[in-house]
Amino acid sequence: DTGVSQNPRHKITKRGQNVTFRCDPISEHNRLYWYRQTLGQGPEFLTYFQNEAQLEKSRLLSDRFSAERPKGSFSTLEIQRTEQGDSAMYLCASSLTQVEYNEQFFGPGTRLTVL
Amino acid sequence: DAKTTQPTSMDCAEGRAANLPCNHSTISGNEYVYWYRQIHSQGPQYIIHGLKNNETNEMASLIITEDRKSSTLILPHATLRDTAVYYCIVTSGNTPLVFGKGTRLSVIA
């Protein structure tokens, strides 16, 4: 499968715990995006990378959220001291900037439940 | 905030054309209209995009008004598998997408 993959698909954690999600983009895609989606809403942009450089992080919801893409390939999104309000679907997408149009390929998402 | 306005929901009979409208009255000259859809429990999927001309691909057609303030996505022969939330997005270049709530399309047998 050459699509975007995300792991784990589901994560249940207790309030106060730290969680980390992984995204593997399509090979050779230099842009990688993280979005969050809550029930009944469209995806909400969080942060994105071009290769290993994080281009925008002001939309991360709080300083408990951080993301990295150390070698310009896979990326991780970490949430520290989780809260119940962090329960959501976390989506990753990748794209190729050499293509003139903005087609982003999304993964299946990681569903986080904070108890 | 999203720069588009879409109806909350629509129904369409299987085999008929589904016409999904979108208003984007504040669109800028360098911004494209993109459509994505999200089938339940999956990530969004790109459908089609356009600047000012009508576009067609294997999935759908996109009709953009001459003043570019609105557009319509057309699924020519809707099937049950087209049931999804459809998002109309205005954007330029390779930038983060700003999603609204979209239109929930229900295709009915």
What does this structure look like?
The complex is a heterodimer of chains A (115) and B (109). By secondary structure, chain A is mainly β. Chain A has no helices and eleven strands. In chain A, the strands form two sheets. In chain A, strands 2, 4, 5, 6, 9, 10 and 11 form a seven-stranded mixed beta sheet that branches. The radius of gyration of chain A is 13 Å and the shape is globular. Chain B is mainly β and 109 residues long. Chain B contains no helices and nine strands. In chain B, a hairpin with a 6-residue loop joins strand 3 and strand 4. Classes of the chains: A mainly beta (115), B mainly beta (109). Chain A binds chain B through residues 4, 31, 33, 35, 40-45, 48, 56, 59, 91, 93, 95, 97, 99, 101-109, and chain B through 2, 32, 34, 41-46, 49, 85, 87, 91, 93-102.
How are the SSEs ordered, and which strands pair?
The complex is a heterodimer of chains A (about 120) and B (about 110).
Chain A: E1 5-7, E2 10-13, E3 19-24, E4 31-37, E5 44-50, E6 53-56, E7 65-68, E8 75-79, E9 88-95, E10 105-106, E11 110-114
Parallel strand pairs in A: 2-11
Antiparallel strand pairs in A: 1-3, 3-8, 4-5, 4-9, 5-6, 7-8, 9-10, 9-11
Chain B: E1 9-13, E2 18-23, E3 32-38, E4 45-50, E5 55-56, E6 61-64, E7 70-75, E8 84-91, E9 103-108
Parallel strand pairs in B: 1-9
Antiparallel strand pairs in B: 2-7, 3-4, 3-8, 5-6, 6-7, 8-9
